[in-house]
Specification:
By secondary structure, the chain is an alpha/beta fold. It has 2 domains: 145 residues, NAD(P)-binding Rossmann-like Domain (Rossmann fold, 3-Layer(aba) Sandwich); 160 residues, L-2-Hydroxyisocaproate Dehydrogenase, Chain A, domain 2 (Alpha-Beta Complex). The strands form 4 sheets. It has a 6-stranded parallel beta sheet, sandwiched between helices. Strand 12 and strand 13 form a beta hairpin. Helix 5 crosses helix 10 and helix 6 crosses helix 9. The protein is globular. The protein binds adenosine-5-diphosphoribose. The site of adenosine-5-diphosphoribose (APR) has 22 residues, from helix 1 and helix 4.
């Protein structure tokens, strides 16, 4: 049986770390592509040279030629430009400028994916996440089940980590989910969060839960404040579980950015919803009842995503 082929379009921090975890787990052979110098070849070789010590059999290769992604089953897209100072003007790009810059990058990425890996499932990580999913969807013309955004997996992991830390219990016993757009309007759902089946609202006070939710929503900023650049271990871990669920056909329920066609009352917008991920990509979107407060928060989050999508300038 042929091995799975996982392509990493962008071999920066998140791309390479995701490859690391998936290779170590033996989920498939990994190919790394990046436009920057020989970084993809260098990281691939370094990672491959770790295999004898750790004891895994995945093959890892890299190139600065996008043809290396040919025939991939899954393409993990992290290519993009982070928000950083312009060395000449000393100014940060505005949010809208950054959207346009990464729109150009993702348009280029989409063209290559269409050419070299037309049957692949795309797991996209580049920010602003929901809008970049929209670009990928428009530019590839792939069916919606094959364009999946990674956001909820990370946001949910952060949320669970903080709850486990608060209660001094295993992260494995914390269950819950975060919906909505990726950003500070995300919607953690305490009413649907439990610790080994016990509602978290019975274990943690409302005030403290609100603080945890707030910390989760600003989780990316907290790491940037400490490191000076974006998080990558947790984003990569979130991405890795999505790819694993897809390629191993695990059908795990992972909140993921998906193109809505009426679900939860939204349309033509990528939004984080509970998705069943399997060999077909997004195989199902689970429906859940939201109360008025949760609904209002999700509406607000969807509006925030819509505002960024409007910047892209696609015809409605
Ligand atoms: N084609 C291929 N690679 C590209 C392109 C392109 N057109 N444009 C940029 N890249 C590469 C860069 O050379 C860099 O190696 O994308 C990589 C991005 O890696 P990092 O800058 O290390 O960023 P990272 O921390 O991995 O984050 C990637 O994920 O979580 C999001 O906000 C984050 O959008 C960012 C993305």
């Amino acid at each position: 049986m042929a091995r799975n082929k996982i392509a990493f379009y962008g071999a920066g921090n998140v791309g390479a770390t995701t490859a690391h975890w998936l290779a170590e787990k033996g989920i498939g052979d990994c190919v790394l592509f990046d436009i920057f110098g020989q970084v993809a070849s260098g990281k691939a070789l370094d990672l491959y040279e770790s295999a004898p010590a750790i004891g895994f059999n995945s093959m890892i290769t890299g190139s600065n030629d996008p043809a290396i992604i040919s025939g991939a089953d899954v393409v993990v897209v992290t290519a993009g430009i982070p928000r950083k100072k312009d060395p000449v003007t000393g100014k940060f790009p505005s949010r809208d400028e950054l959207v346009k810059i990464n729109q150009d990058v993702i348009t280029d990425v989409a063209r290559n994916i269409k050419q070299y890996a037309p049957d692949s499932i795309v797991v996209l990580v580049t920010n602003p996440l929901d809008a970049m999913c929209h670009v990928m969807f428009e530019e590839t013309g792939f069916p919606r089940e094959r364009i999946i955004g990674q956001a909820g997996a990370l946001d949910t992991a952060r949320y669970k980590a903080f709850i486990a830390q608060e209660l001094g219990v295993s992260v494995q016993d914390v269950h819950g989910l975060v919906l909505g757009g990726h950003g500070d309007t995300m919607v953690p759902l305490p009413r649907h969060t439990s610790v080994a089946g016990i509602p978290v609202t019975e274990l943690i006070s409302k005030e403290r839960l609100d603080e945890i939710i707030n910390r989760t929503a600003n989780g990316g900023g907290e790491i940037v404040g400490l490191l000076g650049y974006s998080a990558y271990y947790a984003p990569a871990a979130g991405t890795a579980i999505m790819v694993e669920s897809i390629l191993m056909d695990q059908k795990r329920v992972i909140p993921s950015a998906v193109y809505t066609q009426g679900e939860y009352g939204y349309s033509d917008l990528f939004l984080g919803l509970p998705c069943v991920l399997g060999r077909g990509g997004v195989e199902r979107i689970l429906d859940m009842e939201l109360n008025a407060e949760e609904r209002a928060k999700l509406d607000y989050s969807a509006e925030a995503v819509r505002a960024v999508v409007d910047v892209l300038g696609y015809k409605k």
